[in-house]
Amino acid sequence: MTTPNITQEVLTTADGVPLKTSLNHALRRRKIRSLLLVAPLFFFILLTFLIPITDMLLRSVDNKIVPTLLHRTIPLLAGWDETGQDLPDEPVFHAMVEDIKEGAAAKTILRLGRRLNFERAGMSSLFRKTSRRVKRLGQVDSYREAMLKIDRQWGDIKTWRLIKRESGTMTLSHFLSAVDRQRNDDGTIGLKPKYKRIYIKLFGRTMALSLLITALTVLLGYPIAYLLATLPTKTGNLLIILVLLPFWTSLLVRTSAWIALLQKEGVINDLLVALGIIADNHRLTMIHNQIGTVVAMTHILLPFMVLPLYSVMKTIPPSYVRAARSLGATRFTAFIQIYLPNSVPGIGAGGILVFILAIGYYITPELVGGTSGTFISNMIAYHIQGSLNWGLGAALGTLLLLLVLALYILYDKLVGIDNMKLG
């Protein structure tokens, strides 16, 4: 018995192309179109976020300047035993002279001195002084003696230990400094002297004041958002304009206004003196300290709390509270058990938004914070713009980024990022 051949009919389109092939082509075209639509956003994020973040991470460990400018000295110094008390051999001193001559001619030796000066004070002046004098140094019998005549620091074994320790293309010294640690002469890691421990304190102050500012914006913003959400639409929209009004004013102008209000001869102190609440010789100090920072930043960041709360509260049906009231709940009980839990996602969204903005602020704390109200961001700006210690500034920025990510993950574990809503 023979089995008849069954031929499967291939479905085709009107132009004779197999239907499966046509569908694959259409799907491919749709994917390409989607990628082209997303591409501008991807390149924007790449150029404005990913590349700068990567550059910051690399700068925090970059140390190529030392092995590049001391390319003769570093290979010879690798065989020197820094654990002993003997100075490097004569070839090392000779190589150092040649490297300094080359760096002085290329005008790069001062960059090397500035880099090592971040690790030990006096290194910048040592390389500057040596670069001026080695230009006149010709062929000598002992380069070691010649270097010691230029400056006695070349006879200090700590100088050579530092150069060898920082001879790699990458270093962790910036991160050690960022957590108030340093590498001792014996290679161990220890705390910096007490008067140099500033960064851990600044990180703690930044976290504490940012949490306080976030809590204050919740306390002040919740009643405002509740009022806006429960008022008639026309009145609520009018009041929303007042909430958005600060965004139309320069941040610098708003901060300067708080300086005029909070200073000892400012409006608030004058009013308190006029009302007899305080004596003229006991005016309150509310500026250039933590009070000024908290007050000014709470005012500036308050809209970022009000708007997420308002958008969530507008989605809460009024019938929920009415139903609770009809079942015998008091107004307070209905609010606590019904309305407040439904508004928690808005509190979470506004809280994390205000907190992240707060820890990154540096203009307002710089103007009104003084010495006790500045944030870690002010120190990052100082190292980037003032001291030009970009490595330490990048390390501080990296630690701040990691701290924010850790807090974000903690928030997700405790509250759940899915519970955060913007409306």
Short description:
This protein has 423 residues and is mostly helical. The chain has two domains: 65-171, no CATH class; 199-419, Orthogonal Bundle (MetI-like fold), CATH 1.10.3720.10. The protein contains 19 helices and two strands.
How would you explain this protein's 3D organization?
This protein is an all-alpha fold and 423 residues long. The protein folds into 2 domains: 65-171, no CATH class; 199-419, MetI-like fold, CATH 1.10.3720.10. It contains 19 helices and 2 strands. The chain has a two-stranded antiparallel sheet. Helix 4 crosses helix 6, helix 14 crosses helix 16 (331-359) and helix 15 (318-326) packs antiparallel against helix 16 (331-359). The longest helix has 41 residues, at 19-59. The model has no long low-confidence stretch (mean pLDDT 87).
Percent in strands? under 5%
The rough form would be described as flat
What's the CATH topology label of the largest domain?
MetI-like fold
Question: Helical segment tally?
Answer: 19
- What do the pLDDT scores average to? 87
Give the helices and strands as they follow along the chain: HHHHHHHHHEEHHHHHHHHHH
CATH domain class of the largest domain: Mainly Alpha
Say which CATH homologous superfamily of the largest domain is assigned.
MetI-like
Taking all Cα atoms into account, the compactness measure Rg is 33 Å
**Euclidean distance between termini CA atoms:** 72 Å
Q: Percent range for helical residues?
A: 55-70%
